[in-house]
């Protein structure tokens, strides 16, 4: 029984700590969007998809667990490192950070209606209205 | 009166003002004091933490030298056109707010942006975001390197950003001039009389490449210097009323995830060479980042200006938009006739925020 509880605890711990993040685009977007492209788009180093169409990254509130997960896995930065990175660009006229939406539903809504956008949501919440291009 | 107001409101609402204005800002509230120091030329013991702003700490604790408050307004006029103004109020200037940046920016295409107006002179790696303490690890960019008296310019800048394989590439080509009618560093600190400092025919370029762990920045800038002291044109020697300066800089930063190394190597050729360099090493323990740093300034001349600073400190990201920093600086001023502020040991600390 004790062993079972331990296994359960580990499982719960594992799922909550390593919750997957899905990167989503509009279903009509047929570009290859790999991890390298995602990093570049979300750090302002690339402004378009492979076919040359404009890429508009959408983030979520910095306090959300999904955002923390995405920053860590896709951008390899803590939220304060990312904030420092963006403040460097914002106050020198070299870039603007992605717009922050409030939750998965808002990101899905925006991505499903605007072919230029790219966002991230917790893996389970992506539905048929968007296309998952990468998971972390 | 009411009708007039109503009319004004109608006019205001009907104007085709489509610009979305974004306001962002940064602030630093810092304090510190000299723990021990020699002082030079009969002056009290002083730590010159920032040359161009003349941030001087003495043995009396003060929060004015390096505290500042900055607001940035960006009007997005759509189709790649923006207008940006940055207003900064510095404790060192009694919080007298001044426009530090005021420029119009236009995206020609995905890679090229043209900017015109008043901007920061991008001599050093940290020049552009010198005022944004939150963006770097120390209390300040190393003072022995960031010594030059002109730090803004009025002109035109072409900005390129693109990539080559896994490397991101950005470049700047800029030109302009700066006429600082009352240069703070020269007037208040060195000459002690009003000095007008002119850097004209400024022409410079910056190239920066980075991949996910390595960043290299190289720069060159040239200008012609004219000066007026107490309203009189200044003779730089042998009847030369102007002189040419050439600046060279190289910065290499490596970030291994937790461990990071920051380096800068610069030279200003004004006839004499003025060589500066700095090396900093830090390690991120989650939200606590201790660091050590060494910065050096050397004038290649007999009895020139020579000084260096050894620093160590901690940055603590205690909040998602704020960092607390504390730093100890040991300044060695080896110059004699050109002594700047003398030897000193100081402690400074404060909070940086961005919003």
Automatic annotation (TrEMBL), chain A:
It comes from the Bacteria. Residues 1-19 form the signal peptide. Keywords: Signal. This is PBP superfamily domain-containing protein.
TrEMBL record, chain B:
GO terms for cellular component: membrane. It holds the Pfam family Porin_4. One of its GO terms (molecular function) is porin activity. Keywords: Signal. InterPro entries: Gram_neg_porin_domain, Porin_dom_sf. Residues 1-19 form the signal peptide. Residues 8-350 form the Porin domain. It comes from the Bacteria. This is Outer membrane insertion C-terminal signal. It comes from Pseudoalteromonas denitrificans DSM 6059.
């Amino acid at each position: 029984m004790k062993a079972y509880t331990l296994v359960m605890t580990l499982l719960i711990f594992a799922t909550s700590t390593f919750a997957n993040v899905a990167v989503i685009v509009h279903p009509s977007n047929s570009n290859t969007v790999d991890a390298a492209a995602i990093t570049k788009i979300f750090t302002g180093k690339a402004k378009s998809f492979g076919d040359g169409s404009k890429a508009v990254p959408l983030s979520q509130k910095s306090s959300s667990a999904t955002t923390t997960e995405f920053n860590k896995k896709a951008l390899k930065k803590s939220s304060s490192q990312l904030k420092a990175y963006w403040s460097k660009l914002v106050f020198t006229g070299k870039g603007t950070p992605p717009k922050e939406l409030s939750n998965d539903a808002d990101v899905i809504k925006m991505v499903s209606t605007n072919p230029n956008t790219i966002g991230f949501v917790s893996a389970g919440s992506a539905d048929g209205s968007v296309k998952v291009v990468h998971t972390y | 009166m009411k009708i007039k107001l109503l009319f004004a409101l109608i006019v205001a609402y009907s104007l085709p003002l489509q610009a979305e204005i974004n306001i962002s800002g940064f602030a630093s509230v810092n304090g510190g004091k000299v723990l021990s120091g020699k002082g030079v030329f009969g002056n009290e013991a002083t730590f010159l933490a920032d040359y161009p702003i003349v941030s001087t700490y003495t043995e009396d604790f003060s929060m004015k030298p390096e505290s500042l408050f900055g607001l940035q307004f960006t009007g997005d006029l759509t189709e790649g056109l923006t207008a940006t103004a940055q207003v900064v109020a510095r404790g060192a200037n009694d919080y007298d707010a001044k426009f530090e940046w005021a420029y119009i920016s236009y995206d020609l295409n995905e890679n090229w942006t043209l900017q015109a107006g008043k901007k920061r002179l991008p001599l050093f790696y940290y020049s552009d975001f010198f005022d944004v303490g939150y963006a770097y690890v120390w209390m300040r960019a190393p003072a022995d390197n960031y010594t030059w008296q002109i730090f803004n310019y009025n002109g035109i800048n072409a900005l390129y950003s693109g990539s080559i394989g896994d490397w991101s590439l950005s470049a700047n080509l800029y030109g302009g001039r700066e006429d600082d009618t009352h240069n703070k560093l020269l007037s208040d600190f060195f000459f002690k009389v009003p000095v007008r400092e002119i850097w004209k025919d400024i022409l410079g370029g910056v190239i920066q490449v980075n991949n996910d762990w390595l960043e290299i920045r190289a720069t060159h800038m040239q200008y012609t210097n004219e000066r007026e002291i107490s309203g009189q044109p200044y003779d730089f020697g042998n009847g030369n009323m102007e002189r040419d300066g050439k600046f060279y800089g190289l910065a290499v930063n490596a970030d291994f995830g937790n461990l990071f190394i920051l380096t800068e190597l610069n030279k200003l050729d004004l006839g004499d060479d003025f060589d500066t360099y700095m090396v900093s090493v830090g390690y991120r323990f989650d939200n606590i980042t201790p660091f050590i740093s060494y910065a050096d300034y050397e004038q290649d001349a007999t009895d020139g200006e020579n000084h260096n600073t050894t620093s160590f400190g901690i940055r603590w990201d205690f909040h998602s938009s704020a960092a607390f920093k504390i730093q100890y600086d040991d300044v060695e001023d080896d110059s004699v006739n050109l002594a700047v502020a003398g030897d000193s040991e100081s402690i400074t600390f404060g909070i940086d925020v961005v919003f």
